[in-house]
Amino acid sequence: MAFTVTGKGVLLTGASSGIGRELAKQLAERGARLAVVARRRPRLESLAEEIEAAGGARPAVIEADLSARGAAREVASAALEELGEVEVLINNAGGGVGGRIAAVGDREEAREAFEVNHWSPLALVQALEPPMRERGSGAIVNVTSMGQITTWPGFGAYAATKAALSVATETLAMEMSGTGVHVMEVLPGPVDTAVQGETRLAPGIERMLGRMPLGDATTMASRIVTGLERGKRRVIYPRLATVAYLLPPLARRDLRRRASQAAREVEGWDAMEGLVVRTGSQGDEINRYAREQWEAGRGRG
Q1: Residue 95 lies in a domain
Q2: 245 catalytically annotated
């Protein structure tokens, strides 16, 4: 089905950087009325100024930490107050935890990751889907990750949060059949955003990342908007990641082989033993530094 974002009230989480920031700009160019959400208000304010300077309607800025239980409901209320109606919900915010499964366990860092990546998106769906269904129109976009299929040692807890959201999204799409509410899942593979800086802290990770070209955040955002307008059920980028999505047993077998080789050959492989770190823009110091270096252009060498 064809869908237009022009004039629509759009709630976009995780808008302060990377894919979310590019997505906000492209939605504004198409005439969407935006409410943008993130933890870093200065980044959101600069985004709002950039959009306004380019001729778009200034987005409503909502500062929130979606890793805190209950924050999503406050975001939904604020968005409805600002926009009147939320006709498009885009759950793009993400955070995570790094560390081996046995080290992460059910620590607070892991629970926070599930809160921001799984429970908060579902809380926003719960708050905003009923009015969409009553109107007989709307769209829900959940950004998951190819990590649910192509994980790596140290990334399992994060991948599990995205896998959980993926299953919920697939089920939601079934439940919305015939209601006029479209549901779309977005599965980014490796994309050139700040997260690549901290990803590369993991020993041996180049054995996985070297198999696929690094995607571009602007292109990723464009694919999301196009997919939304065309009523696509799923957007995967870079396109080569589609092979892994369609053939997960083969992709996982290949990665197990590569991880086994890395365990034998990569210096510092045991450095992860017992290590647990918060990732993302509000993560631990080493992760924040790696993100900053990547954004500054010094991490790509």
Answers
A1: yes
A2: no
CATH of the domain at 130: 3.40.50.720
Report if pTM > 0.85. yes
- From the list 158, 237, 245, 289, the catalytic residue is 158
Q: Which amino acid, one-letter code, is at 271?
A: A
Tokens describing residue 300: 């790509």
- pLDDT by residue for the chain (301 residues), tens digit each? 578 999 999 999 999 999 999 999 999 999 999 999 999 999 999 999 999 999 999 999 999 999 999 999 999 999 999 999 999 999 999 988 988 999 999 999 999 999 999 999 999 999 999 999 999 999 999 999 999 999 988 899 999 999 999 999 999 999 999 999 999 999 999 898 877 776 666 777 777 777 778 899 999 999 999 999 999 999 999 999 999 999 999 999 999 999 999 889 887 778 777 778 777 766 667 677 666 777 777 444 3
Domain of 227, in residue numbers: 9-295
| Count of domains forming the chain | 1
Tokens of 203: 């020993």
Q: What is the dihedral of CA 31, 33, 36, 42, to 10 degrees?
A: 80
